[in-house]
Design a protein that fits this description.
two-stranded antiparallel ribbon; transmembrane; about 5% strand; globular; transmembrane helix; ABC-type transport system involved in multi-copper enzyme maturation permease subunit; ABC-type transporter activity; membrane; two-stranded antiparallel sheet; mainly alpha
Length: about 325
């Protein structure tokens, strides 16, 4: 396997994508949707700051967090379409065998196709940078925090592209692999939440409370026993991996704590770490006092993505000893 071989495959993939002409319209639609969302979000936050009695000094904090969650949601919709037909689509068109008979290895073809789909996804993310910069300029978000969040989004896009490509190598028909890619995205996002809450009743534990001289018994769920079910969720990973916002003095606790009010990323991070810790009281300083969840979720997703790439390379090996029913070589 050589870098030049990967570049050859990636360049060919880019040329094929550019010939279709639809990408320019997808990019225009992406920018239009992000611009509309950012503009409406900024207007809504401005109205909330003007009418709120408390005030919002760092309007950029909720603006940036909401924008990045929205971008991640769009990325999870776009990424499967970039790679879900990268292998079986070429096989259906009869062009895959032409590449396989060249000196290119299976891993060069695999990584070249993966690089093309991931880089295409990163182009979408780059178009988001002006709007992310707008949120940073509103205040409350440091450049290092913004870069870290963008890096996590980029990595999650790559993971989804790798999984979709693995499904493209596994299934013979492009429509099947595309459908299964979106089912996989649903499982990672909505499915993990459903499984987590369905598992909570299985963790009930009897606890005793003393109140006004009396003792009361209640069944309380133990989320720290099943927190790992939520760890692979991309939104949980992004919220928990985001660096803590600026610290400020909390008069209720008498300590310096991160500003989490109004920041959706911090809110998700506090929720995730609270689930993992065996503490009943909700604590706003969980971002700094509780163990992180995102390394486990991100590590799991990266392992699955790596396994999908290994599956792609295995299915591209030549000579082919066994073909699925209805699959042709050329």
């Amino acid at each position: 396997m050589t870098l030049s071989g990967i570049k050859i495959v990636a360049a060919q993939e880019f040329r094929v994508r550019l010939r279709t002409g639809r990408w320019r319209w997808l990019l225009i639609a992406w920018v239009a949707v992000i611009a509309a969302f950012t503009g409406l979000l900024r207007y809504g936050l401005g109205v909330a700051r003007a009418t709120s009695d408390v005030g919002m000094d760092n309007i950029g904090l909720p603006m940036f967090g909401s924008l990045m969650l929205f971008v991640l949601g769009l990325a999870l919709l776009v990424s499967p379409a970039l790679a879900a037909q990268s292998i079986n689509g070429d096989r259906e068109r009869g062009t895959l065998a032409t590449v396989q008979v060249t000196p290119l290895t299976a891993w060069e073809i695999t990584l070249g196709k993966f690089a093309a789909s991931w880089i295409t996804g990163l182009v979408f993310l780059v178009l988001t940078l002006p709007f992310a910069a707008w949120a940073v300029l509103e205040g409350g978000v440091g450049p290092l925090r913004a870069l870290a969040v963008l890096a996590v989004v980029a990595l999650l896009m790559g993971v989804i592209c790798a999984m979709a490509q693995g499904l493209s190598a596994l299934f013979a028909r492009g429509i099947t692999s595309t459908l299964m890619s979106y089912v996989l995205v649903f499982a990672l996002t909505i499915g993990t939440v459903i499984v987590f809450f369905l598992s909570l009743p299985l963790t009930m534990k009897e606890k005793h409370y003393t109140y006004e001289g009396g003792t009361y018994t209640s069944d309380v769920p133990q989320p720290h026993l099943v927190w790992w079910l939520m760890a692979p969720n991309p939104f949980v990973i992004l919220g928990d991996a985001a660096p803590a916002p600026p610290m400020q003095y909390n008069p209720y606790t008498g300590k310096d704590e991160p500003v989490v009010e109004g920041d959706p990323l911090s809110g998700i991070g506090v929720m995730a770490r609270h689930m993992r810790s065996d503490v009943e009281t909700y604590r706003s300083d969980a971002l700094t006092s509780s163990p992180a969840v995102w390394p486990y979720g991100l590590g799991f997703n990266v392992l699955v993505g790596g396994g999908a790439l290994w599956l792609s390379a295995r299915r591209l090996r030549t000579p082919v000893r066994k073909l699925s029913r209805g699959v042709r070589i050329a």
